[in-house]
Amino acid sequence: MNKDYPIINADVLILGGGSAGVMAAIRAKELNPNQKVVVFEKGDMKYSGCIARGMDALNIVAIPEISTPELYVESNSIACEGIMDEPVNYRMAERSWEMMKKLEDWGVFFPKDENDQYDILQVHPKGKFCVTMKEPELKTILAKKAVDLGVKIINRTMAVRLLKDGDRISGAIGMNVRSGEIIVCKAKTVILSSGGTARFGLPDNGHLYGVYDYPGNTGDGYCLAYRAGAELSGFEYTLVYYIVKDINAPLLYITLTRGAKLFNAFNERKDQAHPSIRSMFKEHVMEDSGPMRINMNHLPEEKVKEIEELLFTTERPACERFYEGRGIDFRTGEIELWPTEVFLCGGHGLTGVRVNENAETAVPGLYAAGDTSLVARGHLSGAFVFGEISAESASEFAAKNGDVSLDEEQINAFISERDSRLAQNTNEIAIEEFEYKVRRRISDYIKPPKNEYKLDRALWWMDRFREELSTMVRVQDVHDLFKLFEVENIIQCATMSALASKERKESRWTPWHYRSDYPETNEQEFKKHIVLTQGERLEDVKISYAPIIRMDKEA
Ligand SMILES: Cc1cc2nc3c(=O)[nH]c(=O)nc-3n(C[C@H](O)[C@H](O)[C@H](O)COP(=O)(O)OP(=O)(O)OC[C@H]3O[C@@H](n4cnc5c(N)ncnc54)[C@H](O)[C@@H]3O)c2cc1C
Q1: 172-206 CB burial, b ≥16 within 10 A, e <16
Q2: 220 Cα to the center of ligand 1, angstroms
Q3: Does 101 have pLDDT greater than 80?
Q4: CB 56 within 8 A of CB 319
Q5: Cα–Cα distance for residue pair 89/129, rounded to 1 Å
Q6: From the alpha carbon of 253, which atom of ligand 1 is closest?
Q7: What is the distance, to the nearest Å, from the Cα of residue 368 to the centroid of all Cα atoms in its chain?
Q8: What does the pLDDT read at residue 554?
Q9: Which residues of 303-332 are buried (b: 16+ CB within 10 A; e: fewer)?
Q10: Could you give the domains of the chain?
Q11: Which of 167, 400, 436, 541 is a good FRET partner for 474, with 20 to 30 A between their CA atoms?
Q12: Cα separation, 317 vs 331, whole angstroms
């Protein structure tokens, strides 16, 4: 082949070097140091993804003698209101303790008290699984490990298309987000670990990137999987978090579990009844009793310092500047909470590529892990454990199956598309303005509460936006170009979310899928997954159902 792009080879290609991706890369090299492991990462793996630096807890660890994987499955099933496949969740919990010990061996700090006990919090309906972690260098530790093991990391590279050899996956096309150059990776297996759709609805602060989840995640993994023939589910689970107003940064569990008080707008105490993000959002929106506020002025200095240390180092260091700017001192002031933008995510929610307990998708050679995959509410534990599982399955598949061939036509098709997008340089609308409008419509029509009228309006707008992406959006440089590909994925996710939401003619996970025209839960008809696959064209979304998978495999 005579072409102007490089082709590299991989046994395992990982798309997205966040929590799941970096763990998959490490595991693949641990298993076989001689296999070629490549990561395409849109940002820079050292600080990219949800972790960015560190995190205050590993949310699901079944610590022996304290809790069990069985209890976790029971507990999470309650939280998922029954829409949860048991085997994947069992597998995650079963390996969570081993995972935590491994992290500890690598130097990740899990504090213990004077009796040598971990700090374990209850955040699930049943059982204590949430273990405090204090590790501001979590991501850099993992990234360094991957580099030391010889993983080839290609930063600033957005995976734009998967490649197929017949039914089987054969690699992916990456595009450098700064130069627009194409790189092709011919790969025996591919792991999708590019997070959820963080840039979905528009946050109330109006900033495109001022979102709760990592803003580089624009549903690319979902769309790549969908285009390649994999199954998606849970797109009607439209999450809205309830956290610090304007910065959309977390602090709830960090403060409440350390004795902070919570008040609603009527000065009623709310912290005693173990409020969840879901119940707080419900009260704020549906009972109009918000905004709620966190108050810590009764806490001893050492507790306030502990909270500050966690928030200002481990979670998001930018929080310190935010509170300083607002003139808020935790010793005297209050922290106002507010609903975030609506977003889609497998780790906090139920949206994702359908995988089995081996992280396999419906496409041979294609695996998914972390927020891209559907391991319901797996959080960071799910990303790490399924990062490992996907690497184990992919490595085995790569070893057992022969080489793949590249289909030049698939690559040329993308290059033509890129070039025609670059030719849109005289169009009128800046991509940022367009993204703002798309996401405002998502907030208007897909953010819960929902109804048929709103969802139809969402679909009408998304069809129109799909067309305007070509006829109106201006692409002046490579920056605009890759933003356009991101916005195309956001539009596709919105279409899929509106369709799944229309299909689930009931209310479940209220308020996250609250249908004002179907306010009741319908166990009879809707205790099942709504599955999406691609039809003839990108916008032809096929809808089917799948039963809930139990441990004994009975539906
Ligand atoms: C603010 C916040 C706090 C949290 N706190 C906790 C907690 O305390 N405990 C807990 O257990 N869980 C927590 N979670 C959840 C947990 O962090 C996530 O579930 C987990 O990190 C998801 O990992 P991931 O690899 O799927 O996604 P990410 O870590 O976000 O990684 C996705 C990566 O893919 C890259 N990418 C995206 N698109 C492409 C593309 N097209 N090509 C190449 N690369 C791409 C991104 O740049 C990113 O690096 C928190 C999440 C958030 C957002």
Answers
A1: bbbbbbeebebbbbbbbbbbbbbbbbbbbbbbeee
A2: 13
A3: yes
A4: no
A5: 13
A6: 8
A7: 12
A8: 46
A9: bbebbbebbbbbbbeebeebbeeeeeebee
A10: 7-56+84-105+135-194+215-234+344-407 (3.50.50.60), 239-343 (3.90.700.10)
A11: 541
A12: 19
- In ligand 1, which atom is closest to the CA atom of 347? 19
Residue type, 70: E
Judge if the beta carbon of residue 50 lies within 6 A of ligand 1: yes
Closest ligand 1 atom number to CA of residue 370: 26
| Rounded-to-integer distance, Cα 406 and Cα 513, Å | 42
**pLDDT at position 1 over 80:** no
pLDDT for residue 468 is more than 90: yes
- For the stretch 16-54, pLDDT in tens is 999 999 999 999 999 999 999 999 999 999 999 998 888
* Mean pLDDT across 181-204: 97
The residues, ordered by sequence, that sit 6+ positions from 172 with a Cβ below 8 Å of its Cβ are 13, 15, 40, 159, 160, 161, 162, 163, 184, 185, 187, 190, 224
pLDDT in tens, 420-433: 999 999 999 999 99
Q: Residue 277 corresponds to which tokens in the numbers above?
A: 């993000």
| % of residues, the chain, pLDDT over 70 | 99
The predicted pLDDT at position 555 comes to 42
Q: Which residue is closest in CA terms to ligand 1's atom 37?
A: 194
The Å distance, Cα 73 to ligand 1 centre, comes to 23
Cis peptide leading into residue 511 (ω within 30°): yes
Q: Which pTM value belongs to this model?
A: 0.96
Name the DSSP class of 259.
Answer: T
Q: Which of 221-225, 262-266, 363-367, 383-387 has the lowest mean pLDDT?
A: 262-266
Whether 217 lines ligand 1, by a CB cut-off of 6 Å, is yes
As a whole number, mean pLDDT of residues 124-132 equals 87
Amino acid making up residue 294 = I
Report which ligand 1 atom has the smallest distance to the Cα of 159.
Answer: 42
Smallest Cα–Cα separation from 481: which of 180, 71, 183, 264? Answer: 180
pLDDT tens digits for 293-309? 999 999 999 999 999 98
Q: Is 239 exposed, middle or buried (0-12, 13-18, 19+ CB in 10 A)?
A: buried
At 342, phi and psi to the nearest 5?
-80, 140
Burial of 291 (0-12, 13-18, 19+ CB in 10 A): middle
Sorting pLDDT into bands at 50, 70 and 90, what band is 351? very high
Helix (H) or strand (E) holding 487: helix 478-503
134 C-beta closer than 6 A to ligand 1: no
Testing ligand 1's pocket by substitution, the residue of 61, 182, 194, 243 carrying the most ligand atoms inside 8 A of its CB is 194
**Longest pairwise C-alpha distance within the chain:** 71
Which of 177, 380, 493 maximizes ligand 1 atoms within 8 Å of its Cβ, making it the mutation to test the pocket? 380
Between the two ends of the chain, the Cα-to-Cα distance in Å is 49
